Write the structure tokens for this entry.
Amino acid sequence: MGGYGSGRQVESGPGYKTADLSSLDVREVARIGILTPGFRAKREFRQNGEVFATVQAETTRHRLTLDLQGELKNNARVEHQWSLGLSWTPCNFGGERPWFICPTPGCNRRVAILYGLSDLACRNCHSLSYRSQSETPGDRAARKANKIRRKLGWEPGFLNGPGWKPPGMHRTTFSRLSAEHDEFVRRALLEIAAKLRLGHEHPG
């Protein structure tokens, strides 16, 4: 539900990344209509015709209540209930943007994503860092190159080489993105070469 269940459920703490824990994103929850005040629903999850989990949701203007009950493969019962505070801020062009209020006592941060399972909390309370915070310059360059490749519709993976100009894209824009892509690839390859000590090898 709304991205929940992505990631691995582990103990949090220094050294762990946001991708290591399950997450609940308020934007995804809002997108499927659960944050509409007065919303109340129950959803069953089935496998081989048998119900193995149910989720009940109930929403008011300032609170979302979720009740999860399920059964694991070893027949162990899983029960979790969350009562999450909601906050709303106006958008620049109309409408409102929802936020979760971190349920950790004394925190009350307004956040888009909560992490964990039984102990849902914000990134700060779980002492989590983003995956990008542990990136090397080469990792960052490779990620940016691949981001441009997605925008251009090229085959994923910067080692696959450049592709063609997307239909309808202005040639100036394409030239700029291509040049940025090539520079990021160059930086990524330089770091790879350094790690492999290729930069110190000379023809015999």
The first helix runs from residue 26 to 31. The chain has three helices and eight strands. The beta strands are 23-25, 40-47, 50-60, 63-71, 77-90, 96-101, 110-111, 113-115.
